[in-house]
Amino acid sequence: MVPPGAMLIPFFVLYQTVGLQGTHIGPFIAHVAQNFAIIIWVMKGVLGVLSAALEAAGMVDGGGHWRVFRSIMLPWAMPRIAATGVLSFLFF
């Protein structure tokens, strides 16, 4: 993870070029850029473990892709998504 101070000059140059300097969307983009890597890292580690096995089990039971996602994968992933959201909020 990159220290936030190291991103000041690149973000300033980017905001000045794009015209986001002094807007409310600028800090939002900075927050998302800082937390995006950690969110992907945590979610890949959490969801990559059992997701293929759960999906295969749901398909064997006769569910389609959308049904397996809605009935099995999403309820299983919601606590993990919420925990990652809290972690992202704490890093803000």
In short:
The chain is an all-alpha fold and 92 residues long. The protein is elongated and about 55 Å long.
Q: How would you characterize this protein structure?
A:
With 92 residues, this protein is mainly α. The protein has one domain (4-91). The chain has 3 helices and no strands. The longest helix is centred in the middle third of the chain and has 36 residues, at 25-60. It is elongated. The two termini are 14 Å apart. The model has no long low-confidence stretch (mean pLDDT 84).
Q: Radius of gyration over alpha carbons?
A: 18 Å
User: Would you tell me the overall average pLDDT?
Assistant: 84
Count the domains. 1
Tell me roughly what share of residues is in helical segments: over 70%
Shape: elongated
Termini separation: 14 Å
Task: Characterize the largest beta sheet: strand count, sense, and whether it forms a barrel.
Answer: none
The beta-strand count equals 0
Overall structural class, as computed from helix and strand content, comes to mainly alpha
User: Helix count, per DSSP?
Assistant: 3
